Amino acid sequence: MTDSRKWDIEGTLALGASHPVGRYRHDLATGRWWWSDETYRIHGFEPGEVVPTTELILAHKHPDDRDRVSQVLRRACVTGEPFSSVHRIMDAHGDERTLAVVGEGRTDEAGAVCELVGFFTDVTPAVARIADARATSSIRASAASRAAIEQAKAIVMCAVRTDMEGAFDWLREASNHSNVPLRDLSARIVALASASNGDMRVVAEALADLLVPRSESPTAPR
Predict the structure, then answer these.
(1) How does pLDDT run along the chain (222 residues), one tens digit per residue?
(2) Which positions ≥6 away from 27 have C-beta within 8 Å?
(3) What CATH code is assigned to 3-125?
(4) Helices (DSSP H) in 3-52: which residue ranges?
(5) Closest CA to 118 of 135, 106, 109, 131
(6) What Å distances lie between residue 60 and 28, 49, 57, 112, 118, CA to CA?
(7) For residue 32, what are the contacts with CB-CB under 8 A and spacing of at least 6?
(8) C-alpha distances in angstroms, 73 versus 9, 57, 85?
(9) Got the DSSP string for 44-101?
(10) Could you tell me which residues come within 8 angstroms of residue 126 by beta carbon, excluding any fewer than 6 positions away?
(11) How distant is the alpha carbon of residue 189 from its chain centre?
(12) Distance CA 169, CA 83 (A)
């Protein structure tokens, strides 16, 4: 394999030893597939338990990814160019896995694409870790946003002399009126109150200048 046709095997394997890697070969003339033992296991089978075929492989692709994978495979069979795909499968046990697949075509003496060769890498653990990290980050951001809103509500309660529900209505109206997201508006109010050293008269005046709520609002600062 020349340098110009090399795919990023090293990058795929760099996912770590905990990620199973299996090999495959697809003979285009006969339609036969060869799987290494690890490729069988990645798909939920014992080595040699089934005869791998294109139909079997596509049948195990996640329904939402099947058409895309089929197109990648068809294109590779025609062009022989290096390819890669990250997609989900449903293994023989019904468990969802995420695979990174890389490969390329090999040509015969006449220059025609005669087979595909490459690797399956089970990146399910890495995907799960990424999803967990994103979920944790999202939860933390949401908690921080809620905290700022609650603080802003308390400040508005004191500044405009209303109850908690009235303070939230005032914040929501001010957010709509000024076209500033509620979380950003709340952060501004908290910073404003901190800068005023708790002087609610100063806060009320600053809110009136900063937020410009509707003059007819019954909860606007007076």
Answers:
(1) 333 333 344 444 454 446 788 999 999 999 999 999 999 999 999 999 999 999 999 999 999 999 999 999 999 999 999 988 889 999 999 999 988 888 999 999 888 999 999 999 888 877 766 666 666 666 566 666 777 777 787 888 777 777 878 778 888 878 877 788 878 888 888 887 777 776 777 777 767 765 554 444 444 444
(2) 33, 34, 114, 115
(3) 3.30.450.20
(4) 9-13, 37-42
(5) 106
(6) 20, 15, 5, 29, 18
(7) 26
(8) 18, 11, 10
(9) T--TTSS---HHHHHHTB-TTTHHHHHHHHHHHHHH---EEEEEEEE-TTS-EEEEEE
(10) 15, 16, 19
(11) 33
(12) 54
Question: For residues 69 and 58, is the Cβ–Cβ distance under 8 A?
Answer: yes
Query: At which residue do the structure tokens 């933390």 appear?
Result: 140
Cα separation, 86 vs 172, in Å, equals: 42
Instruction: Please tell me the pTM assigned to this model.
Output: 0.55
The strand order across the sheet containing 21-27 reads 33-35, 21-27, 113-122, 96-107, 83-90
User: Angle at Cα 22 formed by Cα 20 and Cα 28, nearest 5°?
Assistant: 155
Name 208's Cβ contacts closer than 8 Å, sequence gap at least 6.
220, 221
Tokens of 174: 């001010």
Amino acid identity at 19: H
Element (H, E) at 133: helix 124-160
- The segment(s) of the chain belonging to CATH 3.30.450.20 are 3-125
